[in-house]
Amino acid sequence: MTDKTPALRLENIVKTFPGVRALDGVSFEVLPGEVHALMGENGAGKSTLMKVLGGIHQPNEGRILVGEEPVVMANPLDAKAKGIVFIHQELSLAEELTVAENIYLGELPRKSFGRVDWKTLHARTDEILAQLKVGFDARTVVGTLSIANQQMVEIARALTVDAKAVIFDEPTASLTDAEKVVLFEVIEDLKRQGVGIIYISHRMEEIFRITDRISVLRDGQYRGTLVTAETDEDEVTQLMIGRSLDLSRNESHAELGDVAVEVRGLSCGDLYRDVSFEIRRGEVVGFYGLVGAGRTEIAETLFGLREPSFGQILLDGEEVRLHSPADAIARGISLVPEDRKGQGLVLGMNCRDNMTLPQVDDLKAGPFVAEGAEVAIFDQYRDRLDIRTPGWRQLVGNLSGGNQQKIVIGKWLSMHPTLLIVDEPTRGIDVGSKSEIHKLVRDLAAQGYAVMVISSEMPEVLHVSDRIVAMYHGELIRSFTSDEVTEDNLIQAISGIRPDEKAA
Ligand SMILES: Nc1ncnc2c1ncn2[C@@H]1O[C@H](COP(=O)(O)OP(=O)(O)OP(=O)(O)O)[C@@H](O)[C@H]1O
Ligand SMILES: [Mg+2]
Question: Could you say which residues form the signal peptide (predicted)?
Answer without folding.
Answer: none
